[in-house]
Specification:
alpha+beta, 13 helices, binds protoporphyrin IX containing FE, metal-binding, periplasm, iron, metal ion binding, hydrogen peroxide
C-alpha cells in the first residue's frame, strides 16, 4: 500500500473517522462537539463567491510572451527591452453575457484578458476578440449590459431590449456587425484573435509618447461555427471551450498568437478624420500598419480552476512604466471599475492572491483589512507612513510620464453629434465575401425574431446607411421592403 497522508482538520489536527458522524447511540441524534462535521458543512456554505457581473464564464491558462522584434524605440517597458525576452503571463478568455454556467458555444463577444507578470509590476491588457466596442461613453455601459442580461420580470434574455438599445445607439453598429458575423461564434479560444481594443500610450526612454493599439493574431487560424452548428455543439456539451483549450494544452499543443502593435505619433491624434480615442473605431491599417512584437503562447493548465481562473483579477488600471493610458473615455472609466469590482468580488487583498501577486518586490503603505495575511516588507517596522526618516520606500521620479496637453471646457459633449457611425461598419460589410454577408444577415434576422417591427425598421435604417445592400438584405429577410425603411432613406 502506498503511504497516504493523514487527513487533518483545517487547523492541522489528525482526523480519526471521516465516514461516520459522532452520535449518541447508533441512530443519533448528533453531538454538537462533532466539530469536524460542523466545519465541513460551514465550509460548504462558503464555497461560492459572487460571479463576475459580466464575463462570468471563462477559460484560462498560463503561458509566456517572447519578444521577436525590437520595439524599444516606442516603449521603455522592461518586457520589450530585448529580442528573446520572455515574460510569464496568465490569460483568461470569456463570454460576456452568460452566467457562470452558460454554454460555451453561444454567439457573443469573447474576452481576451492577459496578465503579464513583468519585473516592473503586473501589466493587465483586458481586451476582447473584437477591436471595437458597442458604446463609446461609459455612462451607457451599465444600460448596455442590462440589455444583454435577463429581463427583470421574465428572467429571460430579451432580443427586444437588445435591438431597442442598439437601434437607438448607432455607435454600436460596428460591433454588432462583428458580433453577428463569423467572428461572433469561434469554435474555441485558440481560433480567434485578441485585441487591446482601446488606444493606449507607449513612452520610450527619451520620454516621447506614442499612441498604440494592441493585436494578437491567432496562429491556429480562424475557425467559426454557424448558429446551427453551435446549437449541435451545445446539445452535446456546454463546456466545448474548456474541453478544447484544456485538452490541447494537456496534449502539449500550445496555442500561439502573434502579438503586434499599431503606432500613431502623438501629434497625429489632432489630424485624423476620426477620433483615435473612440472605441467604436479602428485605425486603418493602411495608415498605421501592424508592427510585430512577439509570440504569445499558452502552455500550462491551471492546477486549480477556482484559485487561478475564477480568482484571477484583471484591471486596465494595471500598467507598467513605458505603457500608459489615453483620453479614451471608456478606458478612463474602466481604470476605476475593475479594481472596485475585485474588492467586492474577492476582497480587499485580492492582489495578494498567488495568481494576482506581482512577481517583483511590492512595497506599499496600505494597512490592515480583512484577511491581511501577507508580508509587505517596507524594510523597517517603523516605516508604516510616508514621508518618513527611517528609509522607507519612496517615490521614484524617473518614472514620471511626459505631460499630456489637454484643452476644452468641462461639459457633457454629445458624442453622437457629427460622428460617422456608418463608414467603418459599411467598409467591413463590403470586405466580406457574398457567403459571409449572407451568414451575417441570416444571423441578424434570426436574432431579431419577435422584435417589434418599429425597432426592426429603425435598425434596418442603420444597416442601410452602412451599405444599401446590408439594409435591403436584412429588411427582406425580415419580410420588409425598401418602402418600410425610414422615409428619408427610401428616397435616397
Ligand atoms: C470584465 C466593467 C468595457 C473586457 C468586467 C468586469 C467589470 C467590467 C465590472 C468584471 C470584473 C470582475 O469581476 O473580475 C466594464 C466597464 C466597461 C467595460 C465599466 C466600460 C466602461 C469593456 C471593454 C472590454 C472589456 C471595452 C474589452 C475591450 C472585459 C473582459 C472582462 C471584463 C475581458 C473579463 C476579465 C476576466 O477574464 O476576468 N468588465 N467593462 N470590458 N471586461 Fe469589462
Amino acid at each position: 500500500m502506498p503511504h497516504r497522508p493523514t487527513l487533518t482538520t483545517s487547523a492541522g489536527a489528525p482526523v480519526s473517522d471521516n465516514q461516520n458522524s459522532l452520535s449518541a447511540g447508533p441512530r443519533g441524534p448528533l453531538l454538537m462537539q462533532d466539530y469536524q462535521l460542523l466545519e465541513k458543512l460551514a465550509h460548504q456554505n462558503r464555497e461560492r463567491i459572487p460571479e463576475r457581473v459580466v464575463h462570468a464564464k471563462g477559460w484560462g491558462a498560463h503561458g509566456s510572451l517572447t519578444v521577436t522584434q525590437d520595439i524599444s524605440r516606442y516603449s521603455r517597458a522592461g518586457l520589450f527591452a530585448k529580442v528573446g525576452q520572455k515574460t510569464d503571463l496568465m490569460l483568461r478568455f470569456s463570454t460576456v453575457a452568460g452566467e457562470l454556467g452558460a454554454a460555451d458555444a453561444e454567439r457573443d463577444v469573447r474576452g481576451f484578458a492577459v496578465k503579464f507578470y513583468t519585473d516592473e509590476g503586473n501589466w493587465d491588457l483586458v481586451g476582447n476578440n473584437t477591436p471595437v466596442f458597442f458604446v463609446r461613453d461609459p455612462l451607457k455601459f451599465p444600460d448596455f449590459i442590462h440589455t444583454q442580461k435577463r429581463h427583470p420580470r421574465t428572467n429571460l434574455r430579451s432580443p427586444t431590449a437588445m435591438w431597442d438599445f442598439w437601434s437607438l445607439s448607432p455607435e454600436s453598429l460596428h460591433q454588432v456587425t462583428i458580433l453577428m458575423s463569423d467572428r461572433g461564434l469561434p469554435v474555441a479560444p485558440m481560433f480567434m484573435n485578441g485585441y487591446g481594443s482601446h488606444t493606449y500610450s507607449m513612452i520610450n526612454a527619451k520620454n516621447e509618447r506614442f499612441w498604440v493599439k494592441f493585436h494578437f493574431k491567432t496562429q491556429q487560424g480562424h475557425k467559426f461555427h454557424t448558429n446551427a452548428e453551435g446549437g449541435q455543439v451545445i446539445a452535446r456539451s456546454r463546456e466545448s471551450y474548456q474541453e478544447e483549450l484544456f485538452g490541447a494544452i494537456e496534449r502539449g499543443q500550445s496555442p500561439r498568437w502573434t502579438m503586434a502593435i499599431q503606432i500613431m505619433p502623438e501629434a497625429d491624434a489632432e489630424k485624423t478624420a476620426y477620433n483615435p480615442f473612440d472605441l467604436t473605431k479602428v485605425w486603418p491599417h493602411a495608415d498605421y500598419p501592424l508592427i510585430e512584437v512577439g509570440v504569445l503562447e499558452l502552455n500550462r493548465n491551471p492546477d486549480n480552476y477556482f484559485a487561478e481562473v475564477e480568482q484571477v483579477a484583471f484591471s486596465p488600471s494595471n500598467v507598467v512604466p513605458g505603457i500608459g493610458f489615453s483620453p479614451d473615455k471608456m478606458l478612463q472609466a474602466r481604470i476605476f471599475s475593475y479594481a472596485d469590482a475585485h474588492r467586492y468580488r474577492l476582497g480587499t487583498h485580492y492582489e495578494a492572491l498567488p495568481v494576482n501577486a506581482p512577481r517583483c518586490p511590492v512595497h506599499h503603505y496600505h494597512k490592515d483589512g480583512a484577511m491581511r495575511f501577507f508580508r509587505n516588507d517596507t524594510g523597517n517596522p517603523d516605516a508604516y507612513y510616508e514621508p518618513n526618516s527611517v528609509n522607507g520606500p519612496a517615490e521614484a521620479p524617473e518614472y514620471r510620464e511626459p505631460p499630456l496637453a489637454i484643452s476644452g471646457d468641462a461639459d457633457r459633449y454629445d458624442h453622437r453629434a457629427g460622428n460617422d457611425d456608418y463608414s467603418q461598419p459599411g467598409n467591413l460589410f463590403r470586405l466580406m465575401t457574398p457567403a459571409e454577408r449572407n451568414r451575417l444577415m441570416d444571423n441578424i434576422a434570426e436574432a431579431m425574431q419577435g422584435v417589434p417591427v418599429e425597432i426592426v425598421k429603425r435598425q434596418v435604417g442603420h444597416f442601410y446607411r452602412c451599405d444599401p445592400d446590408y439594409g435591403i438584405g436584412v429588411a427582406s429577410r425580415m419580410g420588409l421592403g425598401v418602402t418600410d425603411l425610414p422615409r428619408s432613406l427610401a428616397a435616397e
